[in-house]
Amino acid sequence: xxxxxxxxxxxxxxxxxxxxxxxYSKSMLESGVDGVKASSxxxxxxxxxxxxxxxxxxxxxxxxxxxxxxxNVQPMHTWSWSVNEIFEPLFKDPTxxxxxxxxxxxxYLAEMKKNSTTSG
Length: 120
Description:
Number of helices: 4
Radius of gyration: 26 Å
Order of helices and strands: EHEEHHH
Strand content: 5-15%
Number of domains: 2
Shape: rod-shaped
């Protein structure tokens, strides 16, 4: 075997395999995805830098909508998506609507009529 092409899903497993490839002087084609970020690195033993010596730039800590809806790779993404897409429309929005009506029925109905798109 001259080339290792792994399919691993964690930094720890990639680092372990990288160290084994370096020890046995095996080349490795490392690639992976993290949300919408993709990377690849060709490691040619012993001529190039090994995977463990490279460092990724810091991750975004905010939850972008494209990542949140399509690539839920972090618990925060799943939590944020469920709050924004499920909890708030089902519980928060109707509760705020009901509270607005109960607080000022006349004003609420006048606002609804003003914002209505239907005639009548």
